[in-house]
Design a protein that fits this description.
This protein is mainly α and 187 residues long. The protein has two domains: 9-151, no CATH class; 153-187. 81% of the residues lie in helices and 0% in strands. The protein is built from eight helices and no strands. It has helices spanning 9-29, 32-41, 43-48, 56-73, 75-78, 82-103, 108-148, 153-182. Helix 6 runs antiparallel to helix 7 (108-148). The longest helix is centred in the C-terminal third of the chain and has 41 residues, at 108-148. It starts with 8 loop residues before the first helix and ends in a 5-residue tail after the last helix.
C-alpha cells in the first residue's frame, strides 16, 4: 500500500497563496457571471430586434454589474466595516430586483437582472469573507515559516545577505578593537 507523501511547508504555502488569489479573483468575477449569462439569453431581443438604441434591460444590466464591481472594489474604503458593504449592496440589488418583478411584466427583465446581480454580490461577500477570515491567516502563517527557515530561493538569499552583513559588522567591530589596542586608545 502506498503511503501518502507529506507536502513540504513551501508547497502548502504556495497552495494557500493560490487559493487566496483565486478567491480574490472570484470576488471580482462573480458579478460578471450573471451579466454574461443574461446577455447570452437576451442577445436576440436586445441586439437583433432592438435597432439602434439598446433596450432598458441591457442598460440596467450594465449599470447593476458596474455598480456591483465598483462596490466590491471600494468596499474597504466606502465604509469602515468592509465586511458589511458587499452584503448590504447585495441585499439592495435583491430587493430592487424583487420590487421590479412585482411592478410589471415589462420590468421583469430588469428585476431578474437586479436579483441575480444582488445574489452575485452576496456570493462575492462570501468569497471575500472566506479569503479574509480563513485563507489570509494561513497564507501569512506559512509565509512566515517559509521566510524564517529560508525554504524558498528568495528567503534563502535574504537570509544569506543578513548573515553576510552580520559577519561584516563583526569583522568591523573586531578591527576597531584591534586598532584601539594597537594605537593605545588614541583613536
Amino acid at each position: 500500500m502506498k503511503q501518502k507523501k507529506e507536502k513540504t511547508t513551501l508547497q502548502v504555502y504556495k497552495k494557500w497563496k493560490r487559493i487566496s488569489l483565486g478567491l480574490r479573483a472570484g470576488t471580482i468575477l462573480t458579478p460578471v457571471i450573471p451579466m454574461v449569462v443574461i446577455t447570452a439569453i437576451n442577445w436576440s431581443d436586445w441586439f437583433n430586434t432592438a435597432g439602434v438604441s439598446l433596450p432598458i434591460g441591457f442598460t440596467a444590466l450594465l449599470a447593476s454589474t458596474i455598480g456591483a464591481i465598483i462596490g466590491i472594489l471600494k468596499s474597504d474604503t466606502v465604509l469602515k466595516k468592509k465586511d458589511m458593504v458587499l452584503l448590504c449592496l447585495g441585499f439592495v440589488f435583491i430587493v430592487l430586483g424583487l420590487v421590479n418583478l412585482w411592478l410589471a411584466s415589462l420590468i421583469a427583465q430588469v428585476g431578474w437582472i437586479f436579483f441575480w446581480t444582488g445574489l452575485s454580490c452576496v456570493g462575492s461577500y462570501i468569497e471575500f469573507t472566506i479569503e479574509e477570515k480563513a485563507v489570509k491567516p494561513r497564507v501569512a502563517e506559512y509565509k512566515e515559516l517559509v521566510e524564517t527557515y529560508a525554504l524558498d530561493p528568495k528567503s534563502a538569499a535574504k537570509k544569506q545577505r543578513k548573515e553576510k552583513a552580520k559577519q561584516e559588522a563583526e569583522q568591523k567591530a573586531q578591527q576597531e578593537v584591534e586598532d584601539k589596542e594597537k594605537f593605545g586608545g588614541l583613536i
